[in-house]
Amino acid sequence: MPGAHERDPADISAGRWNAPPGSGGPCGSALTRTPVCRPSSRRGRAPPSSTCSGNPDPASNPAARRTSNGKDRTPGRSTVRHPRTAATVLSALALTAGLSSCASGTTPAPSGQNPGIAVGEPAPGQADAPQSEQTEQSGQPAEHPGEGTGFGKCTAGTLSVRVEYHGDEDVARSADLFIANVGTKACNLAGFPELRFYDAGHQQLSIPTSQSGSTQELLEIKPGERFKAPLGWSSSPEFEPCLEPETVAVYPPNTSDAKETPWTGGKVCAKGVSIDPYARA
């Protein structure tokens, strides 16, 4: 029997020699576990694949099979996922689905709103407000008065105009501007006429006009009927400059064609001519 620190040749050849702690071992390292050392080449055979680097065999050391974070890397052994990791993955999937919905531009319909109707469009069965109702709400006449009432608006081609003066006052003067329907169909009229004054050479004079009173409701003028719009102006020298027109052109409301008639009302001074809305004569 060899001594406590003697090496049995049979153990050395089989690689089973145990080095006592602190003895340095056959590879020069202090081992705490059984190392597998490279035996001597005998009878021309290649040395075993095991090597001795002074450290235990990784296959025999469980600590060598673990990663830096303490997880076992042994082949064939599954890794258990932490429940918190699974919850994080589910949250990420839910967030991705929400972002995809936002990117598609889909917006859920507000509560109580028909999802089949675009915002700003009238609901089924909701008719557009009549033009006369729009006029009442805004306080302004419609852009094309007379439409939707069965008659068209009055134009210069279906009207005759003339001015009837009231006396020969030197200061405050007044007159009535008459219009008559000389056509074969009724037409509609509302608002104020527009006046332009011309001299004998048909050059337009700079005579201002102003509207007095409020706009009346839409008026229907039948063939042969006439309406009037009262006029007022001043001929006083203290309101100079004063100009004396030769003719006046009358434009029916919301039209671009005019009818001219002689102006015999004398001078019109700087304050200009005030115009009242049309009314039945």
UniProtKB/TrEMBL annotation:
<feature type="compositionally biased region" description="Polar residues">
    <location>
        <begin position="129"/>
        <end position="140"/>
    </location>
</feature>
<feature type="compositionally biased region" description="Polar residues">
    <location>
        <begin position="105"/>
        <end position="114"/>
    </location>
</feature>
<feature type="region of interest" description="Disordered">
    <location>
        <begin position="103"/>
        <end position="153"/>
    </location>
</feature>
<feature type="domain" description="DUF4232">
    <location>
        <begin position="154"/>
        <end position="269"/>
    </location>
</feature>
<protein>
    <submittedName>
        <fullName>DUF4232 domain-containing protein</fullName>
    </submittedName>
</protein>
<dbReference type="InterPro" id="IPR025326">
    <property type="entry name" value="DUF4232"/>
</dbReference>
<feature type="region of interest" description="Disordered">
    <location>
        <begin position="1"/>
        <end position="86"/>
    </location>
</feature>
<dbReference type="Pfam" id="PF14016">
    <property type="entry name" value="DUF4232"/>
</dbReference>
<feature type="compositionally biased region" description="Basic and acidic residues">
    <location>
        <begin position="1"/>
        <end position="10"/>
    </location>
</feature>
